[in-house]
Amino acid sequence: MELLIKNGLVVSPEDGLNARADIYVKDGKIAEIGENLNISGAQAIDAQGLAVFPGLVDMHAHFREPGYEYKEDILSGSRAAAAGGYTSVCCMPNTKPVADNAAVVQYIINKAKEAPCHVYPIAAITKNQEGRELTEMGELLEYGAVAFSDDGRPVESSRMMRLAMQYLKGLDKGFVISHCEDLDIVNGGIMNYGEVSKELGVKGIHRLSEDIITEREITLAADLEVPIH
Known about the structure:
The chain is of the alpha/beta class. It is about 30% helix and about 25% strand. The strands form three sheets. Strands 1, 2, 3, 4 and 5 form a five-stranded mixed beta sheet that branches. It has a four-stranded parallel beta sheet with strand order 6-7-8-9. Helix 6 links the parallel strand 10 and strand 11 (about 205). Helix 4 (about 160-170) runs parallel beside helix 7. The two termini are about 40 Å apart.
């Protein structure tokens, strides 16, 4: 199949593109990008007034499967992603059971074979996201995990977070995604702390709850010379 996308604003940072151009697609791959392309036999799409991007990536998706399929599942979530222009998504591990072992990661990958976009599992940093014991990170990477997070909960122990980052540095593969939240400061708050929370008489969450953990992670990353998201 041949496709010619005409008159769109082509945005591709990797190629240094941010200008109006035509895109010729042959057999599912971009064959040429240029001005005023005319390809005999190609199906033309007029993208006047539209932007044409590479596939978008969502690094923080909740497909809720396994365990919470009544909220979302891998296929319904991936269909929604594809409809919005996302060709790759990373799904968080706070499922039931938690994606802290090879069996759950493999289940997600197998279920995603039917998905209309790429689905990459993010595994938990600690077992059952309890912050006490690291998961088998090396094994999880082998089974298809791309990163690690206790999303939904912070890793409260600085020592445990450092161990996770240090371990991944040794493997030279994967990275940590931090849920930045100091639960002691949250202390039962249910909305942003500020004038509105005061006016409503509702317990607020101070921004320090995020800032403190963010600063901790940056300090750990700098010390270990590893990336963190």
